[in-house]
Design brief:
It is a single chain. The protein is of the alpha/beta class. It has one domain (8-292): 4-Layer Sandwich (Metallo-beta-lactamase, Chain A), CATH 3.60.15.10. The protein contains seven helices and 14 strands. It has helices at residues 44-53, 74-84, 101-114, 178-182, 207-213, 233-242, 286-292, and strands at 8-12, 22-26, 32-35, 61-63, 88-90, 139-141, 156-159, 166-168, 192-194, 217-220, 244-247, 253-258, 264-271, 276-284. The chain has an eight-stranded mixed β-sheet. It has a six-stranded mixed β-sheet with strand order 6-7-8-9-10-11, with helices on one face. Helix 2 packs parallel to helix 3. It is globular and about 50 Å long. It starts with 7 loop residues before the first strand and ends with a helix.
Length: 294
């Protein structure tokens, strides 16, 4: 495999209300991805700051893992589409709940915004096409099962165009899905794992899953008030036993490559609402270890 010198940056934004928000950027593609359709007084200023740090004026891609309001708020989605005009939207392939106005409104906004012809839409049994191990390409994984719980149909996506890889498992909950994930070797390249369902899915986020994926870092995206008490204590212990665990309860988390050839990455953990840097930790990226060890 080839190892490239690519500046890579990720940020998880703290929220005071229930929800998830993050971004990913790398210097090779120059694409800025906003994770989840959340754009409010909690994260707005930080998103603009992050765009500036990455030399961007707008987002390129919008990723929405679930139709649930904590991932996709219709009014905030409308603002994102109006202000940033993303050229690609990765959104759930399962239909929104007709009983929930926020979900229906979100789908209508996307349909109106994209119009024909539409960019790539996640649906069916798409598994990332011809994605190859350790290459610099993103991919979406579809587990192929038909499950009643909408959470288990979340968009599973891995960003790996940079020098560290980030995996989002949305709100996956079912234990039936553990082997579907652990049997996919591409997902084992993950450096930064966003814990599914804010770390509350103890039936899915098993010791077996975490040992198979073996991320450098497990992130729990929770709000500052943590009204639902996430993550589940069992999941947190499993994450801590397996790798480094950190959450957005106390502030933003910034991850950025550093050193020669951007082979390692620093994790900056902010507290006090993002006003104080509590710690900096350095990790070698899995891509570099794979390259170095042949």
């Amino acid at each position: 495999m080839e190892f490239k010198n690519i500046h890579t940056r990720f940020r998880a934004y703290q929220m005071t209300v229930k929800g998830s928000s993050f971004s990913y950027w790398d210097s090779a593609t120059g694409k800025f991805v906003l994770g989840e359709a959340r754009f409010n007084d909690d994260n707005k200023e930080s998103i603009y700051h992050e765009l500036n740090k990455c030399g961007k004026k707008s987002i390129d891609h919008l990723y929405i893992s679930s139709w649930d309001q904590d991932h996709c708020n219709a009014s905030e989605l409308e603002a994102i589409l109006k202000v940033f005009k993303p050229n690609q939207i990765l959104y759930p392939g399962y239909p929104p709940d007709k009983e929930k106005n926020n979900q229906v409104d979100s789908m209508n906004l996307i349909d109106k915004y994209l119009g024909p012809p539409k960019p790539y839409k996640y649906k069916g049994s798409y598994t990332g096409g011809q994605a190859q191990p350790w290459e610099y390409s993103n991919f979406t994984h579809r587990h192929g099962l038909t499950l009643e719980n909408p959470n288990d149909n979340s968009v599973i996506h891995m960003w790996r165009t940079g020098n560290f890889s980030v995996l989002s498992l949305g709100d996956l909950e079912s234990s039936e899905l553990v082997k579907k994930i652990t049997n996919n070797n591409l997902l084992k390249e993950v450096d930064v794992l966003i814990l599914p369902h804010h770390g509350s899915s103890k039936e899915f986020t098993t010791k077996e899953l975490l040992e198979a994926l073996n991320p450098r870092l497990c992130l729990a995206l929770v709000d500052r008030n943590n009204q639902y008490g996430h993550p589940d204590p069992t999941v947190e212990k499993r994450a801590r036993d397996n790798s480094r665990y950190i959450s957005t309860k106390d502030g933003d988390i910034i991850i950025e490559t550093t050193g020669s050839y951007n082979a390692s990455f620093n994790v900056y953990n902010y507290i006090a609402g993002g006003n104080k840097l509590e710690s900096i930790e350095e990790f070698l990226s899995k891509k570099y270890v794979k390259y170095y060890n042949g």
